[in-house]
Structures are given as C-alpha cells and as structure tokens.
Amino acid sequence: MVMVSEHNVNEKGHLLIGGIDSLELTKTYGTPLFVYDLSLIRSRARAFLATFQEENIGAQVAYASKAFSCIAMYQVIEQEGLSLDVVSAGELYTAIQAGYPPERIHFHGNNKSVDELMLAMEHKIGCIVVDNFYEIELLKSLTTKLNQKVKILLRVTPGVEAHTHDYITTGQQDSKFGFDLINGQADQAFQQVYKEEFIELLGLHCHIGSQIFETVGFKLAAEKLITKMIEWDNVFGYACKVLNLGGGFGIKYTEQDTPLEPSTYVKEMIIAVKQLVANANLEMPEIWIEPGRSLVGDSGTSLYTIGSEKEVPEIRNYLAVDGGMSDNIRPALYGAEYDAAIANKMGTPKKVDYTIAGKCCESGDKLIEHISLPKAEPGDILAVFCTGAYGYSMASNYNRMAKPAVVFVENGQHQLAVKRETLEDLIRLDLPYHIEKGRD
Ligand code: PLP
After folding, report:
1. What is the 373 CA–ligand 1 centroid distance (Å)?
2. I want to staple 294 with a disulfide (CB 3.0 to 4.6 A). Which of 122, 125, 249, 287 is the partner?
3. CATH of segment(s) 108-291
4. What is the distance between the alpha carbons of residues 274 and 247, in angstroms, rounded to a whole number?
5. Global pTM value
C-alpha cells in the first residue's frame, strides 16, 4: 500500500477506503455509491469527548444528524456515547427505531408541529431546543394537557456571523432561527418559560454557522450568551446549567480549507467559557456542542462510474458521471467545492482539466468546476472525497433518479447501511389516476 495525495492506494493503483479496494466495493454494490470509513467517525467522536473529559468539563457532544442519518449511523454514534440532535419526526423516528436512548436526544427545528412535539414527549427525549414564541405556547399547552415535564434550551441568535458562506450562516440577526439576543426577544422568551411548572429551562443554545476554521466566532458567541446568563442570574436569580454552542467545525474539502483539530475548537471554547464564568462568579455550566460535518464529512466518499465526455473547445471538457445533484446538491446549491480522483488510476499522471457534470437535466448540475485528472475513459470510477455530510441526507429523486446505496467500511469489512433505491421504489407511493375525464 502506498499514499497518493493523502489517499491509500494498493498495488493495482486502486483507491483504498478503510483498507478495502474501492473497485471491489463498486463491483459489489454498483454506483453511485456512498462509502463511509467508520474509523474516521469514531476517532473524531472520541477526540471531541476526550477533550471535555481531560478538561473535566460536564459536556454533551450531540451528533447533528441532519448531516447524515440512517439506522446504522445512529447505532454507530450511539456506540461512541454521543448525544443526538434531530430536527424532524423523521429523524426522531429513525433514531428511536435504531434503539437510540431517548434521554440523549435533542430536538431542534424552527417549526416543530404538534405531532412532532407529541412524539418527542411520548419518548421522553432529553431536551427540546425551543426556537420561537409559537413553540413556547404549544409546549405550555401540551405539557399541561399531558401533565408531563419537558427540559428545554432556548435557541438564541447572538448576532455573530461566522466566517463562511452566506447560505450556511445561521447565527446572525437576520435568521429564521431562534430568539434575538439583541432586540429583547430572548428576554421575553425567558420570562415566558422560566417559572413554568412543566418546563425546565436548562439554558441557552446558539449555532453561528458552518464550515468554520477559527475559534473567534465561538468565543464571541459564548461571551454574548454568558452576558445574558449573568443578567438573568442578577435579575431573576436564574442559574443556567447548560451552554450549547452548536456545531459548525470545518473540514478539509479541498487544499484551500484549513480546519482546526476537534480538540482545538473544544479547548478554546472551554478556556473562554471558564474565564467568563469565573469573572462573573457563576457556576460553570455544562458545555454542549453539536458537530455534524466534522464527525462524518471526511469519512464519506462518493463513487461514480464515468460515462460520456464532451469537449467545448478552448472552454472546458465535461466529464459526466452516473449521479450528480440528485445525490450531492451542495455544489449547485451554494457553490461547495470538492476534490476527486479516478479511483482506478491513482498513480497515473493528471493530464486533463475536467468539469465533472452530473446527469440531471440542469445545466448547473456540476459536481466540480475544474479538476485535473488522468485521461478518463468510460467505465472508470470517479471518487469524490469528503461527501459524508449533507450529501445523501440532501439527496432527492429529481429526474426520478434512484438514491444511491450507502456502505460502511470498518476493520477490513464492508456492509450495506442503506440499500440502493430500485425503479419499483420510485413508483412505490404513486397512485394511478382515477377521476373520470370531464367532457370538453
Ligand atoms: N446545530 C445546528 C442547530 C445546526 O443548524 C447545524 C447545521 O446546520 C449543526 C448543528 C451542524 O453543523 P455542522 O454540520 O456544520 O457541524
């Protein structure tokens, strides 16, 4: 085995994923295929947890499962002792079916329905992250009706903009999420819940954005939240037990990306929170975080079969694969960038500049704008790296494309985690038309 640009390669020049020949995987499972190397997920999970333990800080590391959810993934995350962040009845149901301990589940969302809140209460999940005044009213009435207590965090927007792309920035003032910290909404929300008999307010939550490479935004957000904690402690004698600083830790999609180690994000957060809390003579709250992408992003690789090629002279060479925006919408949605390689030609010199096109009927269905690869031929396998987060979970059936299979690799073994959709699956929910045709 040798290394080619940070990737393991066997004597045939084939990309290895988790020690397994990627060509063996495509032969067994077909393409497009998502492959997850579980060792990376486990090492990230352990690094986040270990840093809190080393610093002796009460903490929860909740996997933001919107990044990628399925029963097997929830089981792996559970094995690692993490908590879980879900944002819909669908994610919650999947987690429950996976046997996830409900007390370690946190429920997010800016428009939770009555049914979703009822499901959360039925399973007595660990925490509901309350997002708006409507939800407070719903919770008040449901908890009273069911005579059941719930634990909550209030999600606030601290007015901190993370250094990242606009579409994945959520902590600034103009956001659909949470109560504004600056204009008084957070105070109003606090006053509506802190004395409620059936609502236990654990503390505050914020999420300032995604794909963040610095710690300054997290520290700034912590400062704003702790300032509010001090105020509520002084005015109402309220002791905040939990400070949830969200997710958003960056990963290396391309050479340009410079993420920090999980331990660095966590350590710097802890230092900042400890200092702010000590200055104000407050009890140290638990620190909760919600990594999604940084747990599963770089463990995922998408494998595609290369098909047609189109040269636009002096402009570009399109190389088309058998998937596209239907299994990875991120490039089309917000210009996300990826690195890739031809999995069966890892040692071959890169000679051609390609644009990787998907097969969906949208000109914008391009996975990579420019990438230098060996001369490609139909039947070659293209590996797109770092697709483990927000790839499969955002997949659609646009053009009635069937969703790919998902395979987990660990200890030299592989197993299907999600089956490939079939053509029959695509019409499973369709019903024939039966209203009588009207007269002309
Ligand atoms: N927490 C919240 C509230 C989020 O909205 C998100 C992502 O959108 C995350 C955590 C996870 O972010 P990331 O996958 O960038 O870590």
Report:
1. 33
2. 249
3. 3.20.20.10
4. 19
5. 0.96
